# Entry
Amino acid sequence: MRYMELKPRPCIGSGYCCKQSLCMLGVEAHGSIPGPCPSLEFDDDRHWCGIVRKADSEKQKWLKNNLHIGEGCCSSLNSDRRGMLVKLRLSESNSSSPS
Ligand code: SF4
Ligand code: SF4
# Structure
């Protein structure tokens, strides 16, 4: 049997994954509830984990390592990420056009 190998794409903070379900950290903070995670924050045109943002730098390092934050997106075809990519490309093309 053949398997398709999906390479992680860059995370652009669409928030899709944390809207679908809570990670271990989210369950620890909020209990076993359905998504979206109450700790999900939107700021500066992208989503962030509020728990990671509020942690001190040592704890942030530990959390990022254990939650694989910044290591890429395994759900790169989700609609939120695709929509964000379209917006990013539009704003890039607008800012690079002569005015
Ligand atoms: S780009 Fe992928 S990993 Fe990043 S927040 Fe969206 S779904 Fe999650
Ligand atoms: S917002 Fe943070 S705690 Fe909540 S699911 Fe996402 S990474 Fe986990």
